[in-house]
Amino acid sequence: MAAPESGDGNNGAARMVTLISSDNTRFEVEAAAASLSQTLQLTILDGGGGGGDGIPLPNVDSATLSKVLEYCIKHAPAAANGGAPNATAVDRAELERFDNEFVNIDQSVLYSLIMAAHNLEIEGLQSLVAKKVADMIKGKSPMEIRRTLGFPDPTPEEQAEMNAHMLEYGWAYE
Amino acid sequence: MAPPPTLPDEIVEEILLRVPPDDPGRLMRASIACKGWRRLVSGPGFRRRFRQRHRSPPLMGLILNCIDENGVDMVSFVPTCSFRPPHFDLRRWGAIDSRHGRVLLLDVSPWKSQSGEVFSVWDPVAGEHRRLPPRPTSGYLDSFNAAVLCAAHGSCDHLDCHRGPFLVVFVGSYGESMFSYVYSSEADAWSASTSASHYPYFPEFTRSTVVVGNALYFDLKAPVRILTPVGILKYDLGTQEMTVIQPPPVWNGLIVLTIAEGGGLGCVSVMGSKLFLWSREAGPDGDMGWVQSRIIESEKLFPGDHAVMKLDVVAFEDGGGVVYVGTDRGSFATDLKSGQFRKIEGVSGFNDIVPFMSFYTPDRRRPEAGNSFTTEVVFPTSCISVVPSGGNRKERPWAADLAGDERARASQGPRIHHVRVPSHSPEYNHIALFLGVTDASAAPLHDIRLVYSPNDHLLEQVFMLTGRWFHQMKGLEVLND
Asked: Per the database record, which ranges form the F-box domain (chain B) (predicted)?
């Protein structure tokens, strides 16, 4: 664990905060990265999460949290520039490349990620993952969409509804 | 790790909001994939947020004015994305304008000169037609044009107003005078405008129209073969006053009115292989004048090839910043901002097209399946002979009945048939359009009454046309005689 910081966080070194996942793993990150989460930002502004206290995140497991933090650390510098209006094209291209690789993951991880991004209110990540899922269902039938998203097989009633829909809106299935 | 069985609504919405608006099929299929999703995406909240997020409605298709295999004028919907309107081959109609999710159709049947111009407003997304009543006075016109727009033109963002009230502005010229009429869908009536300005050159209207600010602009050209623009008619939507303004100094070919990059009135003209972009701006002395803002080269479109022989600007997406150019190599959508050309499949460069832009999200406000409607149609017996003989009597007993009893009927006078048409049949909207039924969900009606008159020749062609529809109709039922 890094040396504890003073509460004001203005002593030169970046202020660190500790996040605790649902399975009790502790993650130490820069406050600036964790602050990408709207939920955490308020706690951090109030001086929470420093030292040995840590901020418990009972809804996020350690595998998901480490993924979330990977995103936050990468995006924190750009976010600190106020959405990076003066970022170079190279920087933007690098972030875009990172984002594309970042969501190139297993469907179940994507699933936990979208829940975590939602709970932690990390706007950029929410948007990134939602876009990925929207892309994943491109060109797929309702049944394939269910399978892609890992939903159980439809009930007979749902199946009948799907069939009727296909009859009524044939163009959407061509 | 197994995913949870359901996603919260907020997340589903986050995902589905990111489906591109030009892929409405994806949204439709997703909406039915999971219980609850359909309710979510067809609700007013999602509909509004989806539109606000994407801002400009995508191009859904091109309304193509063409002729069918029998030489009958018709409008056809050429899709540019997955969306297909429920019924999209409308015979005896021509499309003249499209804006705010609606298409303005003009009756182009041969008897139109007798009965004056008849318009219909088509909402391809809702699958609804509204046949407009005739204008209060009709008479000979040198030239006319008309435009459709949302009635709340000043206060609406036009993202989801295609089912709301609308206006049709009609402008006509006769001799040196011009006049206008406005149809309001709320009043379901035309009102005559006071303005009648004089213009000495007997101009003709082209089809180009654009709404800029609180005014509607109509392009005018000199009559007979001379394509030079001679003026632009400005119709003030607030005061209903008309004024003619100078066109840009263009002496070759037609212009298409556009919205300039700065938001003011603009236009595009063609010379050689170049598109010229003009905008109307205030000069140093405060007077409004035309400024050539840009030139787009079309030659780079065909590198290393022969120059294009034909290049015409044919249409402008009102609100889309895209003009359509017809060339001898096909039809191209040209983005005025980027200068990029994109080939449009399904139409040639010589086709007469009206671009149709709209959002499409699943909507529960559709007419309920199973509704049908009642109205009376007067048909002349003199055209009975056009009913195809033979065929399956069971499918169209009325036709066989008519053909066999022609002479007797002519002497007996009007004769009435009741026909029930299910609203989910493809013919429903054709007939609804023809009969002027606007909203079947608001007034569920039953049965059609067909009245055959021995003397009325006015609807002869319609009868043939309707006969065709009826011939195609499944489940047609003659209830009594």
From this structure: 7-50
